[in-house]
Amino acid sequence: MSSSLPSSAGKKPKQATLARFFTSMKNKPTEGTPSPKKSSKHMLEDRMDNVSGEEEYATKKLKQTAVTHTVAAPSSMGSNFSSIPSSAPSSGVADSPQQSQRLVGEVEDALSSNNNDHYSSNIPYSEVCEVFNKIEAISSRLEIIRICSDFFIKIMKQSSKNLIPTTYLFINRLGPDYEAGLELGLGENLLMKTISETCGKSMSQIKLKYKDIGDLGEIAMGARNVQPTMFKPKPLTVGEVFKNLRAIAKTQGKDSQLKKMKLIKRMLTACKGIEAKFLIRSLESKLRIGLAEKTVLISLSKALLLHDENREDSPDKDVPMDVLESAQQKIRDAFCQVPNYEIVINSCLEHGIMNLDKYCTLRPGIPLKPMLAKPTKAINEVLDRFQGETFTSEYKYDGERAQVHLLNDGTMRIYSRNGENMTERYPEINITDFIQDLDTTKNLILDCEAVAWDKDQGKILPFQVLSTRKRKDVELNDVKVKVCLFAFDILCYNDERLINKSLKERREYLTKVTKVVPGEFQYATQITTNNLDELQKFLDESVNHSCEGLMVKMLEGPDPIMNQVKGQETG
Question: Among residues 133, 344, 499, 511, which is most buried (max CB within 10 A)?
Answer without folding.
Answer: 344
